Amino acid sequence: MTSSNFLRADVSFDCAGDEELIEASRDWLTFGFKFICPELLEKLDEGGSDIYATITRASTVDDSARSQPYSRANWERMLSSLSERPFSTTLSIFRGSAKNSKFLGSLSVDHLNPSGKWMAFTADITARDEDLANPAYCRRWVDFLAYSLNRVSPASGVVGNDYRGYGETTLDVALNRPRRVSMREARRFLRGYGWVTICPADIVRRLNGAERLNDSDVFCRIENLPDGSAILQSTLSYDQYNDVAVRRVFEVLAPVLPSGNPSRRDAPERARLIFEDAGRYRM
Fold first, then answer.
1. Which of 41, 63, 95, 268 could form a disulfide with 163 if both were Cys (CB 3.0 to 4.6 A apart)?
2. CB neighbours (10 Å) of residue 222?
3. Whether 112 contacts 12, CB under 8 Å
4. Is the pLDDT of residue 161 over 80?
5. Residues 161 and 281 grouped into a single domain
């Protein structure tokens, strides 16, 4: 299902065996809706409304995904089972009935390769125009990222609404850059950039530190994570992230973006990119 208006956070990791990452995945699934749209979770738990949810899980890469109706007990059991490192876990919320439903949002934790080394956390929430224009609503996204990622070391992350890809970024698609290359080089070159961009610690250092990024006046908010990574919010609300803001973000981050000319033909239809070779901006 799709929505014309949505926000989506995609955060990737290259250290899936880390015990702290399991705890972070539990935080992601537990607190995503509580931070971003708490009213959805309240209606879901209260029952008696037209809001319903499904829990989907695949134990291994070879297993078919299995779904069950949401209940508080089912969800608590699913959260407890994250210590078993399932290949995929998703909570999806809908309005209506199973035969005629509207997608409202989902939270997912997925492995991106059969070995289980790479992981992705995703939050995909339908948003109204007034939400995208509301700094308070938009602030919740960054609050959620700062809270849920405060004990792990992300390899990359973007919040935007131009692409819904599995383990791929808008920039990867436009550059025809394979995911295996993008993930292996994630701490050398950003996998993408957007309204909110997560820079791993190695890349923050290459950009001369979070203070230098703050001095650029390109970002309205920078949240520093304990491992040295930084969450960069470009504008107070998503609807302010116009072409001028996209270019400002690109020019600051271009020295740590992969080289190559993004293809307009191959890029997602709604791609928010600067179609120039970032290699020209190398330090």
1. 268
2. 18
3. yes
4. yes
5. yes
Pairing of strands 66-69, 230-233: unpaired
In a domain, 137, yes or no: no
- Cβ-based neighbours of 283, under 8 Å, separated by 6 or more: 206, 255
Verify that 162 and 209 share a domain, yes or no. Answer: yes
276 and 195 co-located in one domain? yes
- pLDDT score of 283 more than 60: no
Does residue 3 sit within a domain? no
**The tokens of 173 are what?**
């698609």
CB 186 within 8 A of CB 200: yes
For residue 123 the two structure tokens come to: 């939050």
Same domain, yes or no: 171 and 106 = no
The whole-model pTM stands at 0.94
* Number of domains, the chain: 2
Contact 215, 229 (CB under 8 A): no
- Domain identity same for 266 and 169: yes
Parent domain of 81: 11-126
| Phi-psi group of 137: left, alpha or beta (phi > 0 → left; psi -120 to 50 → alpha; rest → beta) | alpha
Confidence of residue 16 (pLDDT cuts 50, 70, 90): low
Whether 110 and 226 map to the same domain: the answer is no
Is 166 inside a domain boundary?
Answer: yes
- Identify each DSSP E strand in 112-202 by its residue range: 119-126, 156-160, 196-199
Give the pLDDT confidence score for residue 103 in this predicted structure: 94
**Domain contains 277:** yes
Q: Each residue of 243-277: pLDDT tens digit?
A: 999 999 999 999 999 999 999 999 999 999 999 99
Neighbour count for residue 211 (Cβ, 10 Å): 9
Residues 236 and 161 in one domain: yes
For the beta carbon of residue 274, count every other beta carbon within 10 angstroms.
18
